[in-house]
Write a structure and sequence with these properties.
Elements: E1 2-8, E2 15-19, H1 22-38, E3 45-49, E4 57-61, E5 65-72
Antiparallel strand pairs: 1-2, 1-5, 3-4
Length: about 90
C-alpha cells in the first residue's frame, strides 16, 4: 500500500490517501505537482479517492498545497512512519 500525503498552507495536519499500486499513486502525485507548477490566479480543485477507505474522497484547492510526498506503508511493524514530512533520510 502506498500513501500520498499532502501538506496544506496554515494547516498543521497533512491530508493523506492510500493506493494499492505505485502507478496509481504516482499518477495522483504528478497531477498535483503539475497543478502546483502551472497554477495561475484561478483556483483549481483536485479530487482524490482512497483505496483503503472506500468512501473517503478529498477535494483540494491546489493554491493551498505547499508539499506532496509518496511513501510506501509497510505492513511490518504497523507502518513506522510518523505523520507529516520529515527530514530523516
Amino acid at each position: 500500500m502506498y500513501s500520498l500525503e499532502i501538506s496544506l498552507r496554515y494547516s498543521p495536519f497533512p491530508l493523506s490517501i492510500q493506493k494499492k499500486s505505485y502507478e496509481d499513486v504516482k499518477k495522483n502525485y504528478d497531477e498535483i505537482k503539475n497543478a502546483i507548477i502551472g497554477h495561475n490566479q484561478d483556483s483549481f480543485i483536485i479530487e482524490l479517492k482512497c483505496d483503503k477507505v472506500q468512501d473517503k474522497l478529498i477535494a483540494i484547492n491546489t493554491k493551498e498545497i505547499i508539499a506532496v510526498q509518496i511513501y510506501e506503508k509497510s505492513s511490518v511493524a504497523g507502518g513506522s512512519k510518523r505523520p507529516g514530512f520529515s527530514l530523516d533520510l
